[in-house]
Amino acid sequence: MVIGIAGGTGSGKTTVVKKVMQLFAKKDVVLLSQDNYYKDNSHLSVEEKKNTNFDHPDAIEFSLLTEHVTALINGQSIEQPTYSYLTCSRNQETIHTEPKKVILIEGILILTDKKLREKMDMCIFVDAPADERLIRVIHRDMIERGRDVVEVLKRYENTVKPMHEQFIEPSKKFADLIIPLGGHNHVAIKFLAELIKTKIQSTHTSN
Questions:
Q1: pLDDT tens figures, 36-70
Q2: How far is the C-alpha of 84 from the C-alpha of 90, rounded, in Å?
Q3: Is the Cα dihedral 63, 69, 72, 78 positive or negative?
């Protein structure tokens, strides 16, 4: 069972994924993060790196992500790449990822790619008001990505907000399930967990 979990930057989708993952044994569920599949930009200048638009579909190597999902579906292990926002480049380290009964794919843009979407058995969109998302983006980018508040707000105005309106929000139409309030929606998380649990149990029965 392949489940895609999308939503705007700061919507709480990562929290939803973490809470779902905590409910199951590691042997049953595997996670692929879209953030690991950003294209390598180590060749760009410092100024060009600062202007990298991480919220545009072209920033993602969807072909590799789709290839890896296909491999996991076919029972093959993969070497999932890792990415550094500080250097805007792929790290040398990879994450050895074994196939599991349930594959979770998480990221802001994963529902915008048709070929990747066709691999999913269920598409989920985590929704949150724009002001809440902005607050989370400010906290995250300052703490995790070394940006000051002026830089964060400029980036939000120039790329995050327009890209959300152009690509991410429209991708909501592909969702089978929309989760408002992100990680605070305990009912929706429980419902999603029950779906995954049923899939795992049916797999055990068939084997």
A1: 999 998 888 877 877 788 899 999 999 999 999 99
A2: 6
A3: positive
Nearest to 34 by CA among 130, 203, 9, 204: 9
Q: pTM for this one?
A: 0.87
Counts for the chain of helices (H) and strands (E), in that order = 8, 7
Following DSSP, what letter does each residue of 3-28 receive, concatenated?
Answer: EEEEE-TTSSHHHHHHHHHHTS-TTT
pLDDT digits (tens, 9 = 90+) for 191-207: 888 887 887 777 656 55
Cβ within 8 Å of residue 190, ≥6 positions away: none
Domains recognised in the chain with CATH numbers: 2-206 (3.40.50.300)
- For residues 163 and 141, what is the distance between their CA atoms, to the nearest angstrom? 17
Residue 38 DSSP label: B
Answer for the pair 53, 163: CB distance below 8 angstroms, yes or no. Answer: yes
Cα angle for residues 2, 202, 123 (degrees, 5° grid)? 25
Report helix angle 13-22 to 186-206, nearest 10. 50
